[in-house]
Amino acid sequence: MKRGRFGLSGLEPLGANIQPPRIFRLLNPEPTASRGNSRDGSVIYIVHNYIVSYICRMTDPLTLDEQLCFPLYAASRAMTAVYRPKLERLGVTYPQYLVLMALWERDGRSVGDLSTALALDSGTLSPLLKRLAATGLVHRRRSNTDERRVEIQLTERGQGLRAEAACIPAEMSEASGLSEAEFLTLRAMLRRLSTALQSTGAAT
């Protein structure tokens, strides 16, 4: 971007012949009493102050530090790394752990219900369910009331795994370094963000 007199593209570039006092006068106009029209002078003064404020806030929007997505991405990777050894003891991956938590919350959920709860499409969810079934943690069955409905139920082993995982949430909370209030606030904000982005994606 070409940096002009006010740091904006397309304006007169700063030159060595422009001395600091001149720039100072440009960005800090004289009091309105010295101008012919006090109303016009007030407007100019407000506009100049706005420009000064804008310049102070102006940053390059394409730096990593200015992004929201990057700290979310980095935090997600870091959290998954902390989860990994804890879940390896259970013999599951993080996505499989999410499926198990959804079933511990309510067993016998349909594939469609799990897909909605976990925000996963069927192409991603189906392999997870097959892997969990292959390891003996869940099994699939047709609903007694609707044969078109496939329900996922925990096996005895899958139910028993819940006790082994009971300590993980507290350990992750401690690892986060967040206070309880910060934890609750961040979780609420992330839910709002997720809902907003999903709505935007659905509208495009």
UniProtKB/TrEMBL annotation:
Q: Where is the signal peptide?
A: none
Keyword list (alphabetical) reads: Cytoplasm, DNA-binding, Transcription, Transcription regulation
Question: Where does this one sit in the cell?
Answer: Cytoplasm
Where mainly found? cytoplasm
Pinpoint the HTH marR-type domain residues. Answer: 65-195
The cross-references to Pfam families, in alphabetical order and at most eight, read:
Staph_reg_Sar_Rot
User: Which named protein is this?
Assistant: HTH marR-type domain-containing protein
The organism of origin for this protein: Nocardia callitridis
